[in-house]
Design a protein that fits this description.
homodimer, 273 residues, alpha/beta, D-Maltodextrin-Binding Protein, domain 2, six-stranded mixed β-sheet, five-stranded mixed β-sheet, 15 strands, 33% strand
Chain lengths: 273, 273
Amino acid sequence: MLKIGYLGPEGTYSSHATKLYDDENLKIPFNTINEVLSSLKSSETNQVVVPLENSINGSIVEVLDFLASKNNFHIVGELNIEINHSVYSLSSINNEDVKVVYSHPQALAQCYDYLINNFKNAKHKASNSTADSYNDLINSNEKGVFIGPPWMKDNEKIIVIAENVQSVKNNVTRFVVISDKNKIKKTISDKTSIVISFNEDSPGSLFKALEPMAKKNINMTKIESRPTKEKLGNYYFFIDIEGHFEDKDINECLTEIKEISSLKFLGSYPKFN
Amino acid sequence: MLKIGYLGPEGTYSSHATKLYDDENLKIPFNTINEVLSSLKSSETNQVVVPLENSINGSIVEVLDFLASKNNFHIVGELNIEINHSVYSLSSINNEDVKVVYSHPQALAQCYDYLINNFKNAKHKASNSTADSYNDLINSNEKGVFIGPPWMKDNEKIIVIAENVQSVKNNVTRFVVISDKNKIKKTISDKTSIVISFNEDSPGSLFKALEPMAKKNINMTKIESRPTKEKLGNYYFFIDIEGHFEDKDINECLTEIKEISSLKFLGSYPKFN
């Protein structure tokens, strides 16, 4: 049986993504993203499901740095999970009696407009995660509500007050599955991720590296620069393209880019719909 | 007198960056990044200081989206602020007597290794900001510590337990100053920010847009793609280059890029050292 690591605790978006990816194998929660990634290095896990980027808050740079570093792990899957905030209580309550709202500070900020319009007498209190905010309300000596993920409504002790209360729409987190197993097979619709860097820091380097893709009409779905930390002004470029490394075009393209840059192949994997 | 907006409350990294940028004018705190940005649109403020990207957590996408949208505001400055976490208490305390640690969940996560090694009996409790964690400890009925920014040691009621306790090094937030005033003058060392997009989604578009920069040997210090939300697979590219729009090379280059893309000039401003 495979061991799959993720950022706990149970009930968070990370645990939700992990269950959605796999419902057979052993899933192990860790306390921080770094512990999740380290579990792969120490062979404590075979695969990990980690957030890579959020449409509101940008990339999780610890994960980018792990992908760019020397190791033999590959991306074998991706999942896009919509982040939707619901307001819950433990018993029926009038808006004006809500004295406290618990949630992760990011969720509190994203629902700020709703909260000030609806709960005029409430303090906003931070929880460690949207899952923890439930426990914080149970242990609170004030009456109130908490903000949590949509699947919490399945809990019979919880009452739904409102759904989709965030001000910012299109809040999606892209999770990737990183694995110690070999490269994976071609499907009908794949994506390939690479990271490239240049020894010489000439302004035209990136331009030259994009030429093989442009000439072969390969679609680039992402490009992101990130400082290498080794030398000021020196960058990694994270690039996602459509296709699988077994496709003739992609294969030739990667070979050409390799001739003019340091290229690390991160993986080819099914595109998430 | 200018009115400068920032993300409050007092004592956070944002308020620190704002003071560093300006010590003369009126500074107005807001509750969310969106309120800060809206204050510029409603003329409640003339300038705002907002975080644009963090070296660990990536870009603040609300700010990127604001920059890319139709408006006449310009970036007029940048500041790079190092994020360093210190551990503080309210009275002298032995490590084993620490029952609770307060801070923003991001700070708790970044100091996780230090905390579990030093405070074996402590629960980690979330605060709304690193500035709030001080008040949370004051109001707590348990003995403990809190994690906050380095300048809190200037408060006479606070005792420094340890400094620089984060596991992740090189944690820097880049703030930008966005203004309603006109374009600003050339200095000895400037940066120019632009955002480009393409009507036609051909794979070679970005490649062609980078050509003028490559040919003129203009140094690109950042490139980041971001979905436009208008059409699936359609992207904005945020690009920073070295130089000022009054430089002949930069000016010609921007004109050439404009011929093959929709280009929004975001501003030329002094490079932060």
